[in-house]
């Protein structure tokens, strides 16, 4: 009986300690609250979904900020501070340039050190985890996630994301996916194949870069347990095709921004200034980011 009482008391103490930790992390500064309120006015409403679009075929529940906290999301500790990008396959110098710039962007977006690892070959992926589809080869995301990435997650990783040279598919029933990530295991995979319209050149480099930073930040957002956004146009919106990806902004809506700020604790003003500078220097659209920055009372 004493042992049972001791276990119950221990559980109560641990539970209270966990709640206290979550509560303390949940305390936004007055500056944070002012920021969320300021950028909320810039959120753009989602239109009614059309046939073929993600929300038409996937009826997902909204994940409010309170839902996010109650679901006990993955929250990196002080030692899990690095985002690792793992190129998978054989890349041209131009593709590696795009991955390098994606590294720069993600380091700003998440305010965490980001490292590109040396490329590894996809030749070791077995025949049962690859297929031919419409004249090109595809790799099975589940194999990459569970067999290649999960055993290799560095101790200091906030996220480990493979970037595949080849196209991806999640199972035999799907035609393809742009990427896939785990909500709890700190791993994900994306692909440049469709983002470059099959071949990357100087003429479509900026378009591919915009898509790659969009998909990469989206997948790493999932690694932080953030689900598809149902509140406004947002980088965390689901996407069924390239048209949806191309209209998805490289911006977090005010609801998702609250989740990211709570989890990562970054300075929103500093982050926005750096994002605007990055997009300007790389010839990408800065309008939405600049609008958020100009809306925030410094």
From TrEMBL:
Lineage: superkingdom: Bacteria
Cited InterPro entries: MetalloPept_cat_dom_sf (IPR024079), Pept_M54_archaemetzincn (IPR012962)
Pfam families registered for this protein in UniProt: Peptidase_M54
Cofactor(s) listed in the protein's UniProt record: Zn(2+)
GO biological process: proteolysis
GO molecular function, one term: metal ion binding
Record keywords, A-Z: Hydrolase, Metal-binding, Metalloprotease, Protease, Zinc
Name of the protein this chain belongs to: Zn-dependent protease
């Amino acid at each position: 009986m004493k042992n049972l009482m001791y276990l119950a008391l221990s559980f109560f103490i641990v539970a209270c300690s966990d709640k206290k930790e979550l509560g303390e992390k949940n305390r936004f500064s007055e500056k944070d609250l002012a920021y969320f309120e300021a950028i909320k006015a810039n959120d753009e409403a989602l239109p009614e979904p059309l046939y073929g679009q993600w929300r038409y075929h996937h009826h997902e529940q909204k994940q409010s900020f309170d839902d996010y906290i109650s679901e006990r999301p993955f929250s990196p500790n002080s030692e899990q501070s690095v985002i690792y990008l793992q190129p998978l396959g054989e890349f041209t110098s131009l593709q590696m340039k795009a991955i390098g710039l994606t590294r720069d962007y993600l380091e700003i977006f998440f305010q965490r050190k980001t490292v590109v690892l040396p490329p590894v070959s996809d030749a070791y992926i077995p025949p049962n985890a690859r297929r031919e589809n419409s004249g090109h080869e595809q790799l099975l995301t589940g194999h990459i996630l569970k067999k290649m990435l999960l055993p290799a997650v560095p101790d200091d990783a906030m996220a480990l994301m493979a970037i595949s040279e080849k196209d991806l598919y999640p199972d035999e029933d799907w035609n393809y996916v742009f990427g896939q990530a785990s909500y709890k295991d700190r791993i994900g995979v994306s692909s440049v194949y469709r983002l470059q319209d099959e071949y990357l050149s100087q003429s479509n480099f900026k378009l591919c870069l915009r898509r790659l930073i969009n998909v990469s930040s989206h997948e790493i957002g999932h690694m932080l347990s953030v689900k598809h956004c149902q509140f406004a146009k947002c980088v965390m919106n689901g996407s069924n095709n390239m048209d949806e990806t191309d209209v998805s902004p490289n911006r977090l809506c005010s609801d998702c921004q609250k989740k990211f700020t709570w989890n990562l604790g970054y300075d929103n003003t500093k982050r926005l200034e750096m994002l605007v500078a990055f997009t300007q220097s790389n010839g990408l659209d800065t309008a939405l980011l600049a609008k958020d920055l100009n809306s925030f009372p410094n």
